[in-house]
């Protein structure tokens, strides 16, 4: 009698335990009381007709832990457009902010979620360098988010705590004060992670491997939009090293991936990195879940074709957490699959490789006459 009571209690306890811990997988219906697994959040996407709240992805897989040690340009990195322009933030000046915003969480949170490319607009302002979403090359109280050093220190803390991670910063550079950027990077302690311009490939070669970059502790890659700063401050001029498609509405026309005006053509073979912008001219918080879904993935294919069959290394979006399911993290995983192992998704790399090897052995067994060329075609066309 006593024993069976104890059993019953154990079962009830177990039941409660399981119910209490129950969490939801990708695509499952969620509600405020039903929490999604880590790396997911509960979303609807009315812009796409999806009104059922479902668990959607906010984190890509870490490509360097799936396929290790490749050159830096053989990976793709989730990138946030105007990473610092965060919804409902207040201006550091105390004034009301009138600038549009492009993201929802802090740079620290973005980095934690696997964002590895950050687009930062830097201005001279109040005798310092500020992150502003402004116009006319001038920052105002009502367009000033915060001093750049705050966000640079967040990046420094992340690099210090994660010694095998690499972060890339794209500066939209309005700074004219002498050595302005160097001073703020020095003050944030980020200069110790600096990847030197001298090591950046200049004729389309591969970058150093991610292992090299980690071993040398050269884990911060910085590009500026001002060409003169490469000579004056040792900050790489963006479009010498990175091909970039058109941003804004003109860059969202399905099926085409033209270069932005400052960038060489997308198929320029002497430039090793490719950045794909995919966000509208005016940030659209409710439209982002649609943009960041199937159309984003479709654009990676258009950009692959435009870039002479090369996949984008950076995929830059607004509201990176918004989608109707897999979103920007899924796009990055798919591109990483193609880049690192020729599979449809970096998640399948190990299995996919095993399949390739088994297929190869079988083909050799039954069709000894088949040329290696044909075998390769059979394996890698998917
Ligand atoms: C801008 O903000 C600063 C405080 O950071 C304040 O001293 C200044 O008066 C403000 N300027 C205008 C034009 O409101
Ligand atoms: C930045 O720091 C380096 C050493 O880390 C130093 O040589 C350089 O003078 C500093 N530059 C400025 C503008 O502070
Ligand atoms: C934002 O996106 C929604 C959904 O796609 C669309 O209906 C709306 O017109 C867009 N807003 C702007 C300002 O473009
Ligand atoms: C293999 O290919 C050669 C020509 O490349 C041909 O002469 C031969 O008959 C083929 N053998 C078989 C078993 O198909």
Question: Strand portion, in percent?
Answer: 15-25%
Shape: globular
Overall residue-averaged pLDDT value: 91
Q: From the helix content, strand content and strand pairing, which structural class follows? A: alpha/beta
Return residue spans where pLDDT drops below 50 for at least 5 consecutive residues: 9-21, 377-382
How far do the termini sit from each other?
Answer: 62 Å
Tally of DSSP β-strands: 12
Specify the biggest β-sheet. Answer: 10 strands, mixed
C-alpha Rg (nearest Å)? 23 Å
Q: List ligands, each type once.
A: 2-acetamido-2-deoxy-beta-D-glucopyranose
The helix tally amounts to 13
Order of helices and strands: HEEHEHEEEHEHHEHEHEEHHEHHH
Percentage of helical residues? 25-40%
Describe this protein's structure.
This protein is an alpha/beta fold and about 375 residues long. It contains 13 helices and twelve strands. Strands 3, 4, 5, 6, 7, 8, 9, 10, 11 and 12 form a ten-stranded mixed β-sheet that branches. Strands 1-2 form a two-stranded antiparallel sheet. Helix 3 (about 105-110) links the parallel strand 3 and strand 4 (about 115-125). Helix 10 runs parallel beside helix 11 and helix 12 runs antiparallel to helix 13 (about 370-380). The longest helix has 20 residues, at about 1-20. The protein is globular, with a radius of gyration of 23 Å. The relative contact order is 0.13. The model is unreliable at about 10-20 and about 375-380 (pLDDT under 50). One 2-acetamido-2-deoxy-beta-D-glucopyranose binds near residues 94, 95 and 141.
């Amino acid at each position: 009698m006593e024993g069976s009571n104890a059993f019953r209690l154990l079962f009830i306890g177990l039941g409660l335990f399981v119910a209490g811990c129950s969490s939801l997988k990708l695509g499952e219906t969620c509600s405020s009381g039903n929490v999604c697994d880590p790396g997911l959040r509960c979303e609807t996407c009315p812009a796409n007709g999806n009104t059922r709240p479902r668990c959607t992805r906010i984190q890509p897989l870490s490509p360097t832990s799936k396929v290790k040690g490749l050159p830096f340009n053989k990976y793709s990195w989730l990138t946030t457009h105007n990473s610092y322009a965060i919804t409902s933030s207040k201006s550091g000046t105390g004034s009301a902010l009138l600038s549009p915003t492009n993201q929802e969480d802090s740079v620290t949170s973005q980095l934690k979620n696997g964002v590895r490319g950050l687009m930062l607009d830097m201005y001279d302002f109040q005798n310092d360098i500020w992150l502003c979403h402004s116009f006319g090359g001038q920052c105002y109280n009502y367009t000033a988010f915060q001093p750049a050093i705050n966000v640079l220190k967040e990046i420094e803390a992340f690099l210090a705590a994660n010694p095998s991670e690499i972060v890339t910063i794209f500066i939209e550079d309005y700074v004219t004060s002498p050595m302005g950027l160097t001073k703020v990077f020095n003050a944030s302690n980020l200069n110790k992670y600096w990847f030197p311009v001298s090591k950046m490939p200049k004729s389309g070669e591969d970058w150093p491997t991610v292992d090299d970059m980690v071993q040398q502790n050269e884990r911060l890659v910085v590009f500026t939009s001002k060409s003169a700063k490469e000579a004056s401050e040792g900050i790489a001029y963006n479009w010498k090293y990175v091909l970039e498609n058109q941003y804004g509405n003109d860059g969202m026309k399905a099926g085409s991936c033209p270069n932005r005006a400052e960038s060489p053509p997308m198929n320029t073979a002497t430039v090793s990195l490719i950045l794909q912008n995919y966000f509208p001219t005016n940030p659209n918080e409710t439209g982002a879940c649609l943009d960041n879904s199937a159309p984003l993935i479709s654009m990676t294919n258009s950009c692959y074709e435009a870039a002479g069959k090369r996949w984008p290394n950076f995929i830059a979006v607004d509201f990176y957490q918004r989608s109707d399911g897999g979103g920007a993290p899924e796009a990055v995983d798919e591109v990483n699959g193609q880049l690192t192992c020729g599979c449809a998704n970096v998640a399948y790399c190990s299995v996919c490789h095993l399949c390739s090897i088994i297929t190869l052995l079988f083909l050799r067994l039954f069709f000894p006459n088949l040329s290696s060329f044909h075998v390769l075609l059979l394996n890698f066309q998917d």
